[in-house]
Amino acid sequence: MQRLRPSCKEATELLTQREHTRLSLVNSVRLRWHLSGCEPCQHYVLQVDILTQSARSAPPVGQISTEAQQRLREALKREMNRETDREIHP
Ligand SMILES: [Zn+2]
Question: How far is the CA of 35 from the centre of ligand 1 (A)?
Fold first, then answer.
């Protein structure tokens, strides 16, 4: 690896790209590398993933346990409520 971990901005761009197309192996690894050390981006990716899945009404990817998924959903729900509060009371 020549380059250091990508920035949050870059990671977010990769995530956006991933919505529309498959990432190259290198970008996919770099994205994961960034996520492994960046909590805000982990939250972001969870939201994107869950929103994408619910938008497509597809079953969750079977990579994490049901219990973990449940925890993630609850965390996401809290996040989303916070977002909603901000929108209602700017
Ligand atoms: Zn980040």
Answer: 6
Residue type, position 53, single letter: Q
Instruction: Please tell me the pTM assigned to this model.
Output: 0.51
Q: What is the identity of the amino acid at 16?
A: T
> How many whole angstroms from 33 Cα to the centroid of ligand 1?
10
Helix (H, G, I), strand (E, B) or coil at 41: helix
For 13-42, how does the pLDDT look when each residue is reduced to its tens digit (9 = 90+)?
A: 998 898 889 999 999 999 999 999 999 999
Cα 30 to ligand 1 centre (Å)? 11
Q: Taking the domains of the chain in order of start, what are their residue ranges?
A: 8-88
